[in-house]
Amino acid sequence: MGEVDSAFIQIPENRPKLSIIQAEGIPVINLSPIIDNTIQDSSAIESLVKEIASACKEWGFFQVTNHGVPLNLRLRIEEASKVFFAQSLEEKRKLTIDDIGFPGYQDTEHTKNVRDWKEVFDFLSKDPTLIPLNSDEHDDRVTRWTNPSPQYPPHFKVIIEEYIKEMEKVGFKLLELIALSLGVEAKRFEEFFIKNQTSFLRLNHYPPCPYPHLALGVGPHKDSGVLTILAQDEVGGLQVKRKTDQQWILVKPTPDAYIINVGDIIQIWSNDAYESVEHRAMVNTEKGRFSIPFFFNPGHDTEVKPLEELINEQNPSKYRPYKWGKFLIHRKDSNFKKQDVENLQIYHYKLP
Questions:
Q1: Cβ partners under 8 Å of residue 245, min gap 6
Q2: Averaged confidence pLDDT in the chain
Q3: Is the residue at 213 inside a domain?
Q4: Do residues 108 and 117 lie in contact, with contact meaning Cβ atoms separated by under 8 Å?
Q5: 3 within some domain
Q6: Nearest to 223, CA basis, from 169, 179, 261
Q7: Are 167 and 176 in contact (CB under 8 A)?
Q8: How confident is the model at residue 100 (pLDDT cuts 50, 70, 90)?
Q9: pLDDT grade for 344, boundaries at 50, 70 and 90
Q10: 254-280 pLDDT, tens digit each
């Protein structure tokens, strides 16, 4: 995209208009009690855990401030992202790795995705990343995904790698708080990330759109992993479906904050105590929008199921187990192919 025109995006003529509610929006949580090592106030930690519990239960989304990510690093990756997407389409497509375009560069024409008005660049947290060869539950073979090596802008790969390290730090801190909020040991979730982690960073660019009331930057969806840590620019555009009334709520950009959303795996680990909620991204006619989500995902061989500590006779398991890597491959395959059946969702693993 960049200079790609609207011919790449086929807008359904009968797409309904989008209604949005302007509201205060999702909770904003100050993480300084766990980021600043000089703070030893246990009551501050306890209060923070309660805030996290409330946000996860009532919204499935929240913003965090005082998160410890250096502002200079965030500014560097945001600027590098803009420079990267400003290149010609020919140059960007040199970083499209294979038939599904992951990791690396993707645009709408390449993926044949007529739903979303954007272009992306994906970069793996671990290089290489081990992943199942296919979604067949009886096939144990694995393959390797490897990162591209962008030559422009200068030091782009180094900046991305530094930024990913900071995202992982934030991710693990948040998982500690979520674990405590569920009443389990703080490091409970770390075991799922020690080996074969499948996390990745995505750089998004949503060009100005001549049909802002008809098109979406990203259609309504839920994130299938553990956590998403999102940096969005001042243009904004993220909307969350409020659980209480199913209305779309605009998430107003908060300077230097990160937007966190609970993924499907947290919903399952918590046995539905917390819920992954629908969200979407908007576009506008005048300004392009840039955002940078980090998708914090466990090892491919992780068996996803409710935590044993949360299961009892009064609260039996609500899901049958599944292997994360197999689920991920199934979703990746169906994201880029026309399907005669619905894409795989976690409710397909819901127990009666």
A1: none
A2: 86
A3: yes
A4: yes
A5: no
A6: 261
A7: no
A8: low
A9: confident
A10: 889 999 999 999 999 999 999 999 999
Q: Which two tokens stand for residue 152?
A: 């422009």
258 in any annotated domain: yes
Which CATH number covers residue 154?
A: 2.60.120.330
Decide if 294 contacts 65 (C-beta within 8 A).
no
How much of the chain, in percent, has pLDDT values that exceed 70? 83
Contact 274, 266 (CB under 8 A): yes
- Cβ contact 155:284 at 8 Å: no
The reported pTM is 0.89
CA 18 – CA 43 distance, rounded (Å): 43
Whole-angstrom distance, CA of residue 301 vs CA of residue 349: 17
The pair of three-digit structure tokens given for residue 115, joined into one six-digit string: 């739903």
184 CB-contact burial (10 Å; exposed 0-12 / middle 13-18 / buried 19+) = middle
> And the tokens for 22?
């302007």
First to last CA, the chain: 45
Q: What percent of the chain has pLDDT over 90?
A: 69
The verdict on residue 7 lying in a domain is no
Instruction: Give the model's pLDDT for residue 99.
Output: 60
Based on the structure, what is the number of domains in the chain? 1
> Nearest-CA neighbor of 125 among 155, 99, 145, 140?
145
Name which of 48-52, 85-89, 242-246, 280-284 the model is least confident about.
280-284
Per-residue pLDDT tens over the stretch 217-235: 678 899 999 999 999 998 8
Tally the residues of the chain.
Answer: 352
SS3 50: helix
Three-class SS of residue 304? Answer: strand
Tokens, residue 129: 């990343």
Question: Which amino acid is residue 10, in one-letter code?
Answer: Q
Instruction: Look up the domain containing 124 and give its range.
Output: 20-349
- Say which residues have a Cβ less than 8 Å from residue 3's Cβ, sequence separation at least 6: 88, 89
Q: In sequence order, which residues have a C-beta less than 8 Å from that of residue 333 and are 6 or more positions away?
A: 100, 135
Which contiguous run of DSSP H or E holds residue 295? strand 289-296
DSSP 205: E
